Amino acid sequence: MAIFSVYVVNKAGGLIYQLDHHAPRADTEKTFSFPLDLVLRPHDERVVVAFGQRDGIRVGHAVLAINGTEVNGRVTADGKDVMEFLSNPANYPVSIRFGRHRLSSNEKLMLASMFHSLFAIGSQLSPEVGSSGIEMLETDTFKLHCFQTLTGIKFMVLADPRQAGIDALLRKIYEIYSDFALKNPFYSLEMPIRCELFDQNLKLALEAAEKAGPFGPGS
Q1: Each residue of 175-204: pLDDT tens digit?
Q2: Whether CATH 3.90.1150.10 fits 27-99
Q3: Are 36 and 212 in contact (CB under 8 A)?
Q4: What is the annotated signal peptide range for this record (predicted)?
Q5: Contact between residue 171 and residue 147 where contact means Cβ atoms under 8 Å apart
């Protein structure tokens, strides 16, 4: 069981806290000869696999490193254009590491805002008045759980589909937010949460949830 990440979104849809707790690593590194038997294309400021799958490398995976040098978007850390480098036969054999693209801070802000809008749409589509909005989105690899407080703050947890006790965890996170963010005299409501005690207690709660599942009485 695993809890992947936590998001806190204010009532205006702004991301005020995000924590990557357990990021599954599915990177695959292989040595290739020329010509490359995968089709790569630039997409959203990165180079991704557009066609061809092999040895754990899948369509949509991004180029993360070339010959041990990290790739930042479409260029390597030492300034080489990825597409140009890989189109030159003189650079082969070459070692390429593929994997899931890591979301940037801007992408996380955008996705949080999009979920806020989706949550509002879900509430409006409800045939009954006073719908709570979206409480869970499920895929084959993770579930997104959401708890909205009476003041409009949303707490979101992305977890393994088999992880138990998420409803209790969301309320535990709300308690931690109340105790260590709202009661902090230096914290301004609706603003980004930068509090060491909040971080520490949140991580302890996530670890406890992963190990024990549902929270017990008095937790």
Answers
A1: 999 999 999 999 998 999 999 999 999 999
A2: no
A3: no
A4: none
A5: yes
